[in-house]
Amino acid sequence: MEKVKAVAHVSRSWMTDGTTPRPPISTSSPTTTAWTAPSSSMPSSPPARATLPVPLGPVTASTPAISTSVPTDPSAILDELVAFVDGVRAAILASVDGFGLARSRSMPDEASHPAMLAAAIGLARQLVALGGGAQLRQLVVDHDGGLMLVWPIGDERVLAILAVSGVEQQRLRSFVQARATGLAGAVS
Amino acid sequence: MSTQTFKILVTGPFAAGKTSLIQAVSQTRTISTDVVTSGEESDVKSHTTVAMDFGTYRLDGDDIRLLLFGTPGQARFRFMTEVLKGDVDVVAFVIDALATETHAAAGVELRALLRDLRVPAVIAVNRCDDFEVARRLARSLGALDGEAVVPCQLVDPDSGREVVVEILLTLLASLESTKVEVA
After folding, report:
1. What is the separation of C-alpha B32 from the centre of its chain, rounded to a whole number of angstroms?
2. Are A112 and A120 in contact (CB under 8 A)?
3. Residue B39: left if φ>0, alpha if ψ -120 to 50, beta else—which one?
């Protein structure tokens, strides 16, 4: 839990000031320079590998719960997400063309789920233009049972997180950002 | 005379030519949800529709407008057909004549869809120039004698317009038959 808090603290500048655009989840090295908003003259295709200044926080020997070795297997990352971010119930990683790539153990194995996510994110990307934007950052499904947050992971993957309504979204995003490379990596 | 708007459901198997048809004939900017394919499907084509395609066609001189709703082709996206099929006037079923491995499942899908919707269909047989070949394939899929069949090459926009003409003729015939029944 301490690691998550540390990451959230480091990343607060881009997540909480209300004026800095919130970028999509990066799939590149977290040690590169700050993400900048695309100019309005850019084509509709966003930069494929925008980056964020969100390094992992220090992991001390006294850290009680999270292993010092960061998992690289997407399913393990999603289980870790469920275990260490309060209010997260389940998570699933899919390809943008509707195939399941990984899921937390708490997520049922249902073939239509990744397909629905792909369809939803596909339509949402079109709705971005309706809203005058160029780059989809997230899709939020707010329902009476909680929240579903759907985030692009790079250009070819999509992550859906099922959580309670009061989940701390800054912490959640920080956690996922810190694991972005693993989530965008090899198929589990 | 007020404009009459008709909803056309463009459906059929993966990689049959549905998106090509809509992009070829739409007179307004199409809405497309193409994404890159992965796995075995990437061997067939580089992009695929994951939610829907949308385009429109207005018949010059007549106040008739078609709204073309295209579905994804893969079975895992079948829920999108359920979403899009409401109040459909004509089903345009696109089938690739040369992708024979898709025909059996396509027949099951076509028959189920027509039983469900009870609307006329136009069978667009892509990558086919021979009407008799197209007609036999359509019959093998379960198309009825009276249903329209169009051999086409959907890489050619003119060929797509021939499909639209057939859709319009099918619509007009349907409207005529409705009038007779009313009279």
Report:
1. 15
2. no
3. left
Domain boundaries, position B90: 4-182
What is the homologous superfamily of the domain A2-36+70-183 according to CATH?
Answer: Dynein light chain 2a, cytoplasmic (3.30.450.30)
Domain ranges of chain A: 2-36+70-183
Tell me the CA distances in angstroms from B18 to A35, A158, B179, one per residue in order.
38, 25, 31
Give the number of other Cβ atoms within 10 Å of residue B157's Cβ.
12
CATH of residue B152's domain is: 3.40.50.300
Least confident stretch, A20-34, A112-126, A165-179, B147-161:
A20-34
Which residue type sits at A127? L
Residue with the larger pLDDT of the pair A66 and B130: B130
Picking from A97, A114, A120, the nearest residue to B36 by CB comes out as A97
Rg of the Cα atoms in chain B: 16
| pLDDT, position A39 | 38
The first and second tokens of residue A117, run together, are: 């996510």
Q: For residue range B38-72, list pLDDT tens digits in order.
A: 999 999 999 999 999 999 999 877 789 999 999 99
CA B167, B169, B171: angle at the middle one, nearest 5? 70
Q: Which residues contact B162 (CB under 8 A, 6 or more apart)?
A: B150, B152
Chain A: residue nearest B48 by CA? A97
Cβ–Cβ gap A122/B50 under 8 Å: yes
Cβ contact B76–A112 (<8 Å): yes
Structural domain count of chain B: 1
Give me the interface pTM, i.e. the ipTM.
Answer: 0.83
Distance CA A74, CA A92 (A): 9
Rounded CA separation A10/A172 (Å)? 13
Q: How far apart are the first and last CA of chain B?
A: 21
Q: Distance between CA B69 and CA B82 in Å, rounded?
A: 12
Helix (H) or strand (E) holding A94: strand A88-95
